[in-house]
Amino acid sequence: MSVDILMPALSPTMEEGTLAKWLVKEGDTIKAGDVIAEIETDKATMEVEAVDEGVIEALLIAAGSENVKVNTPIARLSGEDSAAPSAPAVAAEAATAAAPVSTAVAPIAAASSFADPEIPAGTPMKKITVRDALRDAMAEEMRRDDRVFLMGEEVAQYQGAYKVSRDLLQEFGARRVIDTPITEHGFAGMGVGAAMAGLKPIVEFMTWNFAMQAIDHIINSAAKTLYMSGGQIKSSIVFRGPNGAASRVGAQHSQDYAAWYGNVPGLKVIAPYDAADAKGLLKAAIRDPNPIVFLEHEMMYGVEFDIPDVEDYVVPIGKAKVRREGTDVTLVAYSRMVGFCLKAAEELAAQGISAEVVDLRTIRPMDHATILESVKKTNRLVTAEEGWGPMGVGAEIVARITEHGFDYLDAPPLRVCQEDVPLPYAANLEALSLPSVDKIVAAAKKVCYR
Amino acid sequence: MARTRKGEASEGKASDTGVNAFVGKDELLKFYQSMLLIRRFEERAGQLYGMGLIGGFCHLYIGQEAIAVGMQSIQQTGDQIITGYRDHGHMLAAGMDPREVMAELTGRAGGSSRGKGGSMHMFDIATGFYGGHGIVGAQVSLGTGLALANSYKGNGNVSYAYMGDGAANQGQVYESFNMAQLWKLPVVYVVENNQYAMGTSVERSASETAFHKRGVSFRIPGEEVDGMDIVAVREAGARATEHARSGQGPYILEMKTYRYRGHSMSDPAKYRTKEEVDEVKHTRDPIDHIKERLAKVGVTEDDLKGIDAEVKRIVAEAAEFARTSPEPDPSELYTDVYLEAAQ
């Protein structure tokens, strides 16, 4: 009996990859644990090990094939000692010919289709991922200012747990790109201390979830010391890393901290959506004399956007941005949820509702004036965030708009949030728990009484 | 005073503390089966991950099997185990149903946390397994707290707090060490030193790479153990347990081991050479090692075939259960957030 070897998923977010190289050929006998192929994902080149033993009957996908979908049969194995009974899904009878390989898969398209009013017409643009935009921001600021350095777990030799610091060690050396042990509380405090002494550290947390180990230094040491010292002690420091839910990494690795840090005077809190904002706002954050919490999103790292191809692209902190104009309802979001709102706006348009999408970009200080201007036009408000609702960013937006624009509201505002539970691991419960385009559409229709 | 579980046969020698750590043929066969179960289970977990049936992060225990199985063999009923996110091996060694562990990995209703925890967050009070924790180092304070409860209740139980070489650098580990010794808490700290904290070797992350000495300034005794040799693990475990259970306080065991796979499924492990990994696989493999011990007491490869087949069957059954168990009911989304307060 033959079994198919399938294209494996090699990371939580991988959907397809390049079959870079075969390390076996047809007719070879393999056993469990043998490395049979190399696969490139968006993050790394990985070796694929055989799980079953047998003889390679056929290689179904040629080396060098790109965009091979996860679970596509890539080789056929014959052998009586296969694990067929235990894993029927992988041990499907190879009766059919090789599955055709999709060769024309479009890259993940950014939802933004709206010309950016801040970028003058005719500005040259280039495509770049959010990951590389962040990297370029750090590299440019490190070239510009010797006081700027990066420290964190796996930022140097490993090139970043999510490859955001790729090549920085090579360019700037170990003095300025520093691998730390797994000691968040310690290195966050050291970062603040170095900032107090006049350096400009960028402290990377592998995820913001791990920064809970270090939150005392972010709040008690970084945010409050300027005030407590009567303006003497400054901490120009950027704490950055991925925030929010990735993909099925469970409750302890999937939390949105925007509301937590947004609560603290002394901090500035930034949560960009696209590559241009990621780059422009990170550069602004590094230059800013205050402690900055910079919230990225793992699910956005690999997404490509157009970005102005200009020298020194800096975006001011504290200004929201209208990403789509509309007249019936205002959707306000930050980070990944902006993309969800843009998609929701498209669906709403198809149903005759014109939605305006406001990208908050900065959580603190919050630009409620831009939201208010939008609400004056639409008279209806929906907020979207990955965090929990109670005491959340949406709650703050609603409070401010109620305070400053009560007379402009024609319906009670609604908040779309994560359900009020720790994020579950099971695929179906996770999907139920997180905000979705559908939930945003439903909320928008409700405030429009539709 | 021999308070640990008694070995089933009389070969081997007693450890120098007088604790009965005898390992005979029957016990070796049992250990072999447990270790092989972990290995085959983890290989299958890797496969299910590749098929998209397991999501998120998935950290495999392959290479470290002798530690969980050897330490488990000296525990008493009521003792507790707690570890980080490389937890599947510990759960199997503790005696959890492989079907429930695998179904938790696939996020199904039949999983030990009913699909709500996943690979890194699993628990089983019945076997004394307190997790399964996703935040590096957190389990060390928690494990010390389990020991505080044992001391408070005077129940004679010991808590086993496992950590990797990476976690051993976290600050809360040392805060816990200090209090554990100060209050003579019955806790055994087991550092599973597999040489790499994700992609960072111990030489690049630790100013003192001898983790068993990390308790010196707190006056906590420690010893280095060959974590690839289950008999060495068991003997050292017995000494540490005796120390903790008899009221002398914490003890540190540094298990020298190696993980064969990447840190998690998405780690290409470019920070070490293939030759280095192969060298360990071919010269220090814990399962090969126990096979050699079995050969010395007259057990042949042929004799092991029955165990191999049994393990294969258990793993196949676990995978099938994990694949076919239904997803949790949507109503589970809002359960387990709070308990009802007593009226």
What does this entry look like structurally?
The complex is a heterodimer of chains A (450) and B (343). In chain A, the strands form five sheets. In chain A, strands 11-10-12-13-15-14-20 form a seven-stranded mixed beta sheet, with helices on both faces. The termini of chain A are far apart. Chain A contains twelve helices and 22 strands. Chain A is α/β, with parallel strands linked by helices and 450 residues long. The radius of gyration of chain A is 24 Å and the shape is globular. In chain A, α1 runs parallel beside α7, α3 packs parallel to α4 and α8 packs across α12. Classes of the chains: A alpha/beta (450), B alpha/beta (343). The interface between A and B is large, with 64 and 62 residues.
Give the topology, please.
The complex is a heterodimer of chains A (450) and B (343).
Chain A (H helix, E strand, L loop, with lengths): L1 E5 L9 E7 L6 E2 L4 E6 L4 E5 L4 E6 L5 E5 L3 E6 L46 E5 H15 L3 E5 L15 H5 L4 E3 L4 H13 L3 E5 L10 H9 L1 H4 L9 E5 L15 H5 L5 E3 L4 H13 L4 E5 L7 E5 L12 E4 L4 E5 L2 H15 L4 E5 L2 E3 L3 H11 L2 E8 L4 H13 L8 E5 L8 H7 L3 H11 L3
Parallel strand pairs in A: 10-11, 10-12, 12-13, 13-15, 14-15, 18-19, 18-21, 21-22
Antiparallel strand pairs in A: 1-8, 2-4, 2-7, 3-6, 4-5, 6-8, 9-16, 14-20, 17-19
Chain B lengths: L24 H26 L14 H8 L7 E4 L4 H7 L3 H8 L23 E4 L5 H16 L5 E6 L6 H12 L4 E7 L2 E2 L2 E2 H4 L16 E5 L3 H16 L5 E6 L17 H10 L2 H11 L4 H24 L19
Helix pairs in contact in B: 1-2, 1-3, 1-10, 1-11, 2-3, 2-8, 4-11, 5-6
